[in-house]
């Protein structure tokens, strides 16, 4: 059907739109149009039969989906996506079963019942769908805090997992070779159940830090499930879309792993990788949660900002990041962003330390402000960009009488809409050697890297 | 509440303990400020400027009469302060170890001497720390003065008439003054290396783009050292350091020394024999000269020439940038009194941590622990 | 459709998916996940067929259930993406 | 071929016209070099160093005797040169317009005076151009000396005791010296602006990161000006320039003037009234002081204080960096003689373009065109 | 045929390999394997009939191709590619005719002769092939200098072109609708001839500067021709490959136009765009030819180099490019390239001008060399990177007695294997105001842009 | 193969072509052209069929001619690409 191809093309265009924020919303619209075409085509080619029931079903589903999407807090996004995946997985299982039960409707009925190849496709679709479902449920539970985020490790889980997978494959083969409802039903039923189970088993051992990767991976699975059903039904739209979602999800997980320095293999394989878990947000001192970002995130937000205040500290000096910083500021200014430098009286290790370095990088004196002159401006700033400073932004200086820095005036970076904090590690502390609440604020994104390297990457990403 | 500011009487002292800016701020706190006529001349501040800021101008006697607090850069002779209220505070630098007699005289006069050099090195006292603010300027000035004395240019210049190579500057002692000296010399285009005994300074040297040169064989002081202070080093260390310096110094054009050990004579870092290995026309600036000097043969406020090398150093280097030095010094004093200002009593009330640290004399007695230790 | 054609389409679509993702700016990875999630509910097509055809009542009800689930996803997915993208709207300059 | 180098006799002149490096190079060309004992002292060069380089050392008389060429920084009194060969060359700076009498005396003595200041500003003569090499150092030194005189720091420093704001430096006249002054002041962290009459300098000022401040209403000299030289400006321009300066100068802490017009007195750029608008403690360095000065009241080698502003300027600023200045000057002289060295005659033979430009006297007469014009 | 799909995949992998120099040769091998698969599959599925003739044909063609490829000078690359394109175009025409003459062999024979849709595909294939052929022949002639590179503008060419195109379309339609050899032959013959003619017409008016874009566009056409034949033959390999080549060629032309600031539309439309021609290498002062490069070219060559000597001049100071330059050098050093700075005694406008700026950018003094110390090293340098210098590298100072700079020592950049020369325009001169032979050397690539911008772009491209 | 499948394959391959080119580094644009030129001679498949089948002698000879032309291209194209790429070989470090 040409229409299905067109739907597929629209889906491709939808993803393509996301290559830049400017075209992203148009991309989303393309996705909607594609879906509309697919749905309408299907209805039309099937004589718009059973429209009332179908209409009601879509209305119910649509209303629920719409309301959830509206109500949900932005912060609950990851679990929402995980939850949605589970639905796709379950739908795939249901469609698979429907096809199994009513092969004629799908044009699968040959003289000898359903052809083995169709049965393999069907079995795979159901299995992948079931894995997607149960895996997503676990991911949802972990992300929404309904289940502990820490990995749950069964003993001998490697053996169990491998065994279950093998069993699924064997069952699929038996299912394909068997003929007649009586012979096939037990196989497909067992296969479905086992697939649900393996989905649980694969995700349960994965820790909270890896969940985003898992969600993306499950996304990929849901694509493969759709593609498998597409093969069964010979439906171009489903094949294209399934392959698209499947491969893009896989690559996305890979990209995410790379950004987090995690092994892709271990995450795909789910529970198998739990041994070398940890990393990421799991290792904060005292386990306080923080958000880690990348140069691309920072570049993106900086570009969007109207006003950025840069707070350099000793770390900038150590990294000798002043030239890169100046370049970053220049690029932002070219894009119409207002950039100011806020210099704390004791930033660095000698009086005027920051001034020396900024002057070396030819930062104009007009853009350099003292604490008293700029502190009130954080409330209007979109981004506070902290580069290698620490003590001078530590709110403990105001609130915690026992802190060694109590009484020192500090920058009120908490008033800025977004805070980026460049330092090399969560472990490192400033001169005063104390922890800093700014790391853990909602609007703070930690950029953990050498300051010069990070700023250079941001400069590249800004292009 | 009356605050008195006298003209500094020490020779070569151009600084002043209050500027029109701080006079105004004290006024805003509710204090009356009296300034001796001509006190600001050395720092390019006219009497009118003080008057405009709300100060009363007069002779020393008139100014001190009934004063609650006397501010000084270098502590005045207590004889000058007879008119002040009994138990009046005198906040200034006292050089308590070097001028112990003066401290005793303050005790006898019944004055409360607050020695700004004894300000503890804690974060909240940074804005009151005159040692930091003055060393910073001294570090800068030392380089400028050396550059002016040196018979060559600091930066590298490749010109049609050939290349002028960059001066090699070596900074010994990387505290506040040393760091600023590094920064200034770097700015001028010199090739800068530096050394210290505290290991944390290595990274700090690099953070200014200079090259650290450290004793490797014997361990120095780990990290920042307690309170950022160095201590006397072991004989073994000193030997290793001397070897290092001997190897390095012959290739240097400018050496700036800033090494101090609180409460003791400055460590001797450069011997006459080492000076003899330097190129003719080289310059050594000894910032520690007032504390006995890091360099053999250096004399305060005198340019000595040995083996063709000029050795200079002022007893009071920051005082040679009198305008800025006075501005920072007087802000330190204001920050100090302001931090402890009690709205109800209309006067400052010190806390223990800082008060006990800086107070030398009270009720006729020398009360400071550090002076008891050494006395 | 013959299997080779289907397979060709599948393979090429995988390539497209591969390339498309690499060209997405990292800042939009979360919306990307939401969009791909939404479009993966193209599985609704299968549900619709099952629901529309006569032949097996069980299959029909299963199909309808699949339609409900997929619809949640379609509407929810696109709507949530729209919301996310609205946050990234370029300020007016 | 005998080349003689005398000790400079002018007061405050520490430079010397040859260094061991150039002595060696002359030797390689086949010349004998004789150096007066003690000639290098001011530039930190010992007699041994000359001897090691192959020079003969001796008294002035001994050195000059039978010399073919005498090199000097400032041309020596012809009386000193009686022992030289008749028609011997004397290559040095002659200040031909200012010291016309000396030129005539050279003519009478039958010497061939080669004035290095008259070196044409053509590309191939760049390496022989003593004006460039010395102005360059002078520009650097002017800033260093000003920084040492100024009672504040040049760079901005935000410190716990408050902010020291950056010094504002204004450079007037952006030739070689002015550019180097801009560069040096920028390095020290000052806020630098500069002005000139030649429009090409605008971009040059920016190329060093400083801000050009130019007369806009009246047109100045287009591009580089012929040979890079400025001329006397129209009265209209001068008026516009004075207004610009009046508006700008009151906000400056340091002013460095370098404006020269070849063959004339330096233009007067700053009046006493303008000085009075400057802040107390400001510093003006007049590099043109020897040519009459750009600043009203400036005196060579004297620090004048007017309206609280210090006005300084040495007659011979480069001479205060004697070691580097001597090195460059002597390389200029070597490059000059070397470029024209004739292998066969074992002596230099000048060509027309450069020879006629620098030659002041020959065969008992003043032969230079530029001197005929003004005589 | 699965094998054809596999061949297609190999071709995709071949192009993908070119995303980095490291994988590029593997990519080329993939291409060869793909071609081998396609050829072998075809032979096998056609019973290896007529093998001797086919073998001989391939041997002849292969030998010619191989020898040409070996013998050709690297500088003749563009015309070689154009020549090759013409062959593909002609081959497409021949295959189209063969299919027309022997439809049964291609499985095109239905009850009523060849189906109209097949005939449309066939017609398109022949037409595009013919256009590719004649267009490529012209491009080849222009590039190899056998024909003047300047645009040849016929009067009323817009009308002629449009008319011919319309005629081709009409003929294709008539061809599709007609039945029987007698009816169809005139149409297809006319169509072929007209297509050859329009190919000439379209390319003749295009100037030499635009030829690279034209070659890429013709490449694209040859892809479309193959795809059209693939449609006719229902051959997956041909469709995938044709579409791949067609679309990639089109995009490549687009990218090239963008880099050259030319309008894509005008070039695609061929002669239509000749009005705003010029630009590029055509406008050198005194019409001396020079090569212009991009930041990407420079980045690529710099990265490959072992030793780079940077020669900064007054232009670097004007652009304040020193910080960017330092960053570039740092990146190169990280990649193992040796970087030195060569400072001419009179570079800039004051003694030591370059030293001030390089010191500001914290270039270590050890990397900065005077003329005498480094001039002999150019012979060992892979790249001389001239940034805003001009007079100081002008060989006229050595050779031309009448030059105002005669007698000044200059850098012997001519000894370096490759020279990059950053300045803003070919018109601008240095202080001395004279032209510079270095611009026109064989190994020189001009990077015309503000120095800072150019270096920043190189830094980005180096990543 | 039905037309829709063919079209689907065609469209998807166009997308792949689009993306593939954008990911090629600009420095390799010339080799890219050479490679695409070489692989576009996949048209040889058509020539081979014509040459291999009986039925029309003219068609056979046309086919053989096409094979010759395409072969020039295949061998010449790949070989020349190989030569070009050899220039870009990363030095050993
Ligand atoms: N200005 C003065 O005169 C003076 C004198 C003495 C002491 N102090 C004290 O020094 C402190 C100054 O505060 P500050 O905020 O400037 O510095 P800070 O509190 O010492 O913090 C420096 C931060 O930079 C990070 N860092 C170090 N190297 C880095 C690199 N290469 N790349 C990225 N990040 C790097 C460190 O974390 P990681 O290790 O995790 O990277 C640390 O968080 C104050 O406590 C002040 O009292 C100042
Ligand atoms: N060093 C000294 O003391 C001194 C003093 C006076 C004169 N000079 C003379 O100055 C010359 C110095 O030679 P040089 O090689 O350094 O410089 P140059 O010969 O003057 O050439 C400067 C080059 O930079 C280019 N340029 C200018 N601005 C640019 C920008 N923003 N971005 C990119 N390119 C830019 C110019 O071409 P475009 O306009 O096309 O961009 C020009 O080709 C010599 O002739 C020397 O004799 C030197
Ligand atoms: N509130 C604060 O946090 C605060 C305030 C002021 C200073 N400080 C820190 O205290 C430290 C020292 O400051 P300072 O300038 O007052 O120090 P200082 O004047 O006491 O000594 C100067 C330097 O000399 C060094 N030194 C001593 N003996 C030496 C030897 N034998 N050889 C080489 N070097 C030797 C010291 O280590 C020190 O770095 C600095 O790190 C400074 O940042 C902190
Ligand atoms: N061979 C060469 O190419 C060569 C050699 C030496 C100098 N130069 C060039 O010659 C130029 C001048 O060099 P210089 O330093 O010897 O010049 P200078 O010493 O003669 O004059 C100094 C500066 O003062 C400026 N000036 C004169 N009158 C002024 C006024 N009324 N107001 C403001 N400024 C005024 C002049 O324009 C000049 O820039 C420079 O651009 C230099 O690069 C070129």
UniProtKB/TrEMBL annotation, chains A, E:
Position of the signal peptide: none
Record InterPro entries: DHS-like_NAD/FAD-binding_dom, NADH_DH_b, PNTB-like
Task performed by this protein: The transhydrogenation between NADH and NADP is coupled to respiration and ATP hydrolysis and functions as a proton pump across the membrane.
Name of protein: NAD(P) transhydrogenase subunit beta
Pfam families (alphabetical): PNTB
Domain NADP transhydrogenase beta-like: 2-460
Catalysis performed (reactions): NAD(+) + NADPH + H(+)(in) = NADH + NADP(+) + H(+)(out)
Membrane topology: Multi-pass membrane protein
GO MF annotations, alphabetized: NADP binding; proton-translocating NAD(P)+ transhydrogenase activity
Entry keywords, A to Z: Cell inner membrane, Cell membrane, Membrane, NAD, NADP, Translocase, Transmembrane, Transmembrane helix
Domain of life, per lineage: Bacteria
Recorded GO CC terms: plasma membrane
Spans traversing the lipid bilayer: 48-68, 80-100, 120-141, 162-179, 185-204, 237-257
UniProtKB/TrEMBL annotation, chains B, D:
Keywords: NAD, NADP, Nucleotide-binding, Translocase
Keyword Translocase: yes
Gene Ontology process terms (BP): NADPH regeneration
Stretches of the chain forming a coiled coil according to its record: none
GO CC aspect terms: plasma membrane
Any Pfam family matching the protein: AlaDh_PNT_N
Reactions accelerated catalytically: NAD(+) + NADPH + H(+)(in) = NADH + NADP(+) + H(+)(out)
One Gene Ontology term of the molecular function aspect: oxidoreductase activity
Class in the EC hierarchy, top level: translocase
EC number: 7.1.1.1
Domain Alanine dehydrogenase/pyridine nucleotide transhydrogenase N-terminal residue range list: 4-138
Matching SUPFAM superfamilies: Formate/glycerate dehydrogenase catalytic domain-like, NAD(P)-binding Rossmann-fold domains
Domain Alanine dehydrogenase/pyridine nucleotide transhydrogenase NAD(H)-binding: 147-313
Family: Belongs to the AlaDH/PNT family.
Role: The transhydrogenation between NADH and NADP is coupled to respiration and ATP hydrolysis and functions as a proton pump across the membrane.
Protein name: proton-translocating NAD(P)(+) transhydrogenase
Organism annotation: Aurantiacibacter aquimixticola
Lineage: Bacteria, Pseudomonadati, Pseudomonadota, Alphaproteobacteria, Sphingomonadales
Automatic annotation (TrEMBL), chains C, F:
Domain NAD(P) transhydrogenase alpha subunit C-terminal: start-end pairs: 7-90
Domain of life: Bacteria
Molecular function as annotated in GO: NADP binding; proton-translocating NAD(P)+ transhydrogenase activity
Membrane topology qualifier: Multi-pass membrane protein
UniProt-listed InterPro entries: NADP_transhyd_a_C (IPR024605)
Keywords per UniProt: Cell inner membrane, Cell membrane, Membrane, NAD, NADP, Translocase, Transmembrane, Transmembrane helix
Pfam families tied to this protein: PNTB_4TM (PF12769)
Function: The transhydrogenation between NADH and NADP is coupled to respiration and ATP hydrolysis and functions as a proton pump across the membrane.
Protein name (database record): proton-translocating NAD(P)(+) transhydrogenase
Organism listed in the record: Aurantiacibacter zhengii
